[in-house]
Amino acid sequence: MKRLYLMRHGETLFNKLGKVQGWCDSPLTETGKEQAHKAKAYFTRNQLTFGHAVASTQERACDTLEIICGTTDYERRKGLKEMNFGLFEGESTHLQPKGPKAYEHFYQSFGGESAAEVRQRMFAELVDIMTTTKADNTLVVSHNGAIFYFFKHLFPNEVPPLRLANCGFMVFTYENGHFFYLETVDPTRSVTN
């Protein structure tokens, strides 16, 4: 049975400034780099290695993965990108609607994506990754909203964390086309860090 470690990137400048960050990008902060180093230490301590590593094509996800894995030799996939917030990209987060229901169709009117589009592309991308990989453990670095919608696609009646910690990750097993959720981990708050 294969395992998927689905991680959010480290803290970015836009996270710190409270700006909307979907398809636009901003660099990791020093804190974000430190979070990635803590995640790397967590995996080392727990003797977890990854036979396959994949990141969203966005800089913040790639930089996080490169710190954790210590390599630039990994797969990048556009289907793992964050939700497209259209004209809200780069604006203050206080302008966004509140609550996940508001996100279902709101951004389509402003050139962005619907929640259903994000759910479908994340699910299709992760099924393809897990079906084609031969690795027992796969690390995928993506984004908070994209991971939230992937979880909601799998478990529409469950309530996932609305905000995954930077460098936090969800662990799933994958077998015969099905994902099974195991746990959510914040390696930056591990008692042994």
UniProtKB/TrEMBL annotation:
<dbReference type="InterPro" id="IPR050275">
    <property type="entry name" value="PGM_Phosphatase"/>
</dbReference>
<dbReference type="Pfam" id="PF00300">
    <property type="entry name" value="His_Phos_1"/>
</dbReference>
<dbReference type="InterPro" id="IPR001345">
    <property type="entry name" value="PG/BPGM_mutase_AS"/>
</dbReference>
<protein>
    <submittedName>
        <fullName>Histidine phosphatase family protein</fullName>
        <ecNumber>3.1.3.-</ecNumber>
    </submittedName>
</protein>
<dbReference type="InterPro" id="IPR029033">
    <property type="entry name" value="His_PPase_superfam"/>
</dbReference>
<dbReference type="GO" id="GO:0016787">
    <property type="term" value="F:hydrolase activity"/>
</dbReference>
<keyword id="KW-0378">Hydrolase</keyword>
<dbReference type="InterPro" id="IPR013078">
    <property type="entry name" value="His_Pase_superF_clade-1"/>
</dbReference>
